[in-house]
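[job 4471] stage=fold_predict status=RUNNING
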Amino acid sequence: MTWRVGNRRNMWDRTMMGKSYFFLSLLQAAVSMEWTINAPLEVTAQRGLCARIPCHYSYPSHLNKETRVGIWINDEKWKSQSIAFHSGDHSGESLRFYNRTRLSGDLRDGHCSLVIDSITQEDEGPYHFRIEFNKDSYSFFPVTRLRVSDFTDKPSIFPVETVEGKTVNVTCTFNTTCDGTAPTLTWVTPTDEPLSVSHSVTQWGDSLTYTSVASLTPTFKHHGQNLTCRFTYLTVSSEQTLTLTVQLPPLPQWGTASALRTCQHSSLSLLSILSEDGSEKLQQDLD
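[job 4471] inference complete, writing structure tokens
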């Protein structure tokens, strides 16, 4: 009889413990659901450009009015020597990240996207985000792994019809998602021909388009020569080249009226005179 009572009591204790553990698990799950993050598992960036790790986090509503500090760690665990970004104390950041990292967006609105400028191969690896309030803190997992690839981006240069003596606008563009240090766009001309250049920047979402427009008035001596658009960041540069095809302007058609056209090429001057009756007289003058 004593054995039965003890057995029932043990069973009751085990049942209550099981229920308590179940409810505790539900409570922990409910609490953890309030700490959530939306970030990719992997991001690829080109060496010399910037890397952007998109990130949005949520937290318990009772912390809405509290001040907060956002921290990105370049490791799978918390390590003070691996801090890539610290919104409250930049001096605590690792020296190799100093002045190269920043947040895109406002922490108070749940934005935690990390931007790293002038990416190097050494920056490759795991990153995770941590948020600290006055008395609460939370590290978000899984980590985002950053991959660094070779620099391959090139600007785009758009050909235009080029006629001798007629001013044309040649457009060169470069697209990027890096909104930090702007690239420098320059033109390399085939001769000492002066260029009139204008620059502009447009944004569509997270994408930026840098545009440079060069105005030039070609002559026939530019035919077959190259016009190059080059953009440069701090550590990398790239260019695109356009080979000029310069056309001669068409002969004027004036009916029975007189027309005169002088063309210089290979030290040969060709003078074509159309007479009143439509007959053509040619005179060649070798220099």
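[job 4471] summary: DSSP finds one helix and 23 strands in the chain.
[job 4471] exit 0
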